[in-house]
Automatic annotation (TrEMBL):
Xref: Gene3D superfamilies: 3.30.70.330
Species lineage: Eukaryota, Viridiplantae, Streptophyta, Embryophyta, Tracheophyta
SMART domains xrefs: RRM
Name of the protein in question: RRM domain-containing protein
Pfam family for this entry, one: RRM_1
CDD domains: RRM1_PTBPH1_PTBPH2, RRM2_PTBPH1_PTBPH2, RRM3_PTBPH1_PTBPH2
Gene source species: Gossypium tomentosum (Hawaiian cotton)
Role, per record: Plays a role in pre-mRNA splicing. Binds to the polypyrimidine tract of introns. May promote the binding of U2 snRNP to pre-mRNA.
Region (Disordered): 420-468
GO biological process: mRNA processing; regulation of alternative mRNA splicing, via spliceosome; regulation of translation; RNA splicing; seed germination
UniProt feature coiled coil, ranges: none
Cellular compartments per GO CC: nucleus; P-body
Length: 468
DNA sequence: AGCACA
């Protein structure tokens, strides 16, 4: 902070395109400023409400001579410059351009930056935010994050007009109390415009949503945040035991299929469900046991071990926060072994339960496959049987391609490959007789909200966000 | 009445 850094005399004006106007009336509008100045030239920028009293302003002309003409005119005029009858004092500014006339947050755009004050991130769900802002138009995307400023959300509308209507209505307002947890006393929204025009949402999760693409992959790890945060009795975070294990597969040189995982994890007890997914470029899987004890044994036994010799497909296990996976009964990435007796599924059982809870498993009970899959399996080159990757220390490293299951669920395998091989729309499941399960062709992961509604299958097919 | 923003 050196005084010599300001060598120019403060009140000695060298000409500038920028004029400094002071003694302006309270909250002088930009229009009033322009009215006063535009007879002298083209105004390219202004800044109003400057100074502690907000009664100063800057006006920048396109050309220096225009500014000079204005200053000269009023220097020799008998009538001072006036706005609303107040004399306005005009000088050259000591700067030569107006910078940051508008802060970026005041430049309208279709994306709002919302800071939610007075709440913890867990107090306001993305659903609540969506609800509040949807009142002004279709909300395309939402991304939430925690920064120094607090809990913030980027909310993408179709256009700046919609965004500004939301901003005008909600800025400084509070989210309705009934949408908030009881312990939240106040929750004020500070809204500005983001410079973004299109948010890049990679996953549906508890922190981000893309309502234009309901079938965007769900990030299962992120979705765990939907559950209660886990805090031990001592107040510290802990990893609670669970009947569901989260397996990260490292150095996955060979394909790890549902069948392989089933074989490996079945060594410790009944495996109920398996789901495989990609996360951060790696492969992870969720393996569900009936009880925590079995999961704990499997975790202790398998942690750090490799599915194949040579350090291939090394397992890292932790407890998932899930307790009951909602997975497609048959897909190349998931399996629900609890759906019913596999031996029944292999054969056509016309009256097999239409399953009161069939909507929870949109892939449904594949009673319609009939003879179809045997042919498709052949097309896929799947041998009827093959080497089973066993949990055997002597097991030779070998890609499990073509590996087929043991007798127990061999029959389950074929429909999986059938579904994977068949283009959407050609599934026999879409035949009229299958109308009770309308969404069976949806191969994408279910949006997380799909399974919380009754009749979720129908909701999945036509999310409410398409209703506009 | 006396020079902004972030």
């Amino acid at each position: 902070m050196s005084t010599s850094s300001q060598p120019q005399f403060r009140y000695t004006q060298t000409p500038s395109k920028v004029l400094h106007l002071r003694n302006l009336p309270w909250e002088c509008a930009e229009e009033e400023l322009v009215e006063l100045c535009k007879p002298f030239g083209k105004i390219v920028n202004t800044k109003c409400n400057v100074g502690a009293n907000r009664n100063q302003a800057f006006v920048e002309f396109a050309d220096l001579n225009q500014a000079i003409s204005m200053v000269s005119y009023y220097a020799s005029s008998s009538e001072p410059a006036q706005i609303r009858g107040k004399t306005v004092y005009i000088q050259y500014s000591n700067r030569h351009e107006i910078v940051n006339n508008k802060s970026p947050g005041d430049t309208p755009g279709n994306v709002l930056l919302v800071t939610i004050e007075g709440v913890e991130p867990n107090d306001v769900t993305i659903e609540t935010i969506h609800l509040v802002f949807s009142a002004f138009g279709f909300v395309h995307k939402i991304a939430t994050f925690e920064k120094a400023a607090g809990f913030q959300a980027l909310i993408q509308f179709t256009d700046a007009e919609t965004a500004s209507s939301a901003r005008n209505a909600l800025d400084g307002r509070s989210i309705p109390r009934y949408l908030l947890p009881d312990h939240v006393t106040s929750c004020y929204l500070r809204i500005s415009y983001s410079a973004h025009t299109d948010l890049n949402i990679k996953f549906q999760s508890h922190r981000s949503r893309d309502y234009t693409n309901p079938y965007l992959p769900v990030n299962p790890t992120a979705m765990e945040g939907l559950l209660q945060p886990v805090v031990g009795p001592d107040g510290k975070k802990q990893e609670p035991q669970s009947n569901v294990l989260l397996a990260s597969i490292e150095n996955m040189q060979y394909a790890v299929t549902v069948d392989v995982l089933h074989k490996v994890f079945s060594a410790f007890g009944t495996v109920q469900k398996i789901a495989i997914f990609e996360k951060n470029g790696g492969t992870q899987a969720l393996i569900q046991y009936p009880d925590v004890t079995t999961a704990a044994v499997a975790k202790e036994s398998l942690e750090g071990h490799c599915i194949y010799d040579g350090g291939y497909c090394k397992l890292h296990l932790s407890y998932s926060r899930h307790t009951d996976l909602n997975v497609k009964a048959y897909s190349d990435k998931s399996r629900d072994y609890t759906i019913s007796d596999p031996s029944l599924l292999a054969t056509q059982v016309p009256g097999l339960p239409a399953a009161p809870n069939a909507w929870q498993n949109p892939q449904g009970v594949p009673v319609h496959h009939g003879t179809d899959y045997s042919a498709s399996a052949a097309i896929q080159g799947q041998p009827p049987a093959g080497q089973v990757p066993a949990w055997d220390p002597n097991f030779q490293a070998r890609p499990p391609y073509g590996s087929v299951t043991g007798q127990t669920y061999q029959s389950l395998t074929a429909p999986t490959y059938v579904n994977a091989a068949r283009p959407a729309g050609s599934s026999p499941l879409s035949q009229p007789g299958a109308s009770s399960m309308p969404m069976q062709q949806q191969q994408q992961p279910q949006p997380p909200w799909a399974n919380v509604r009754q009749g979720g299958a129908a909701v999945l097919g036509r999310p409410p966000y398409y209703s506009r």
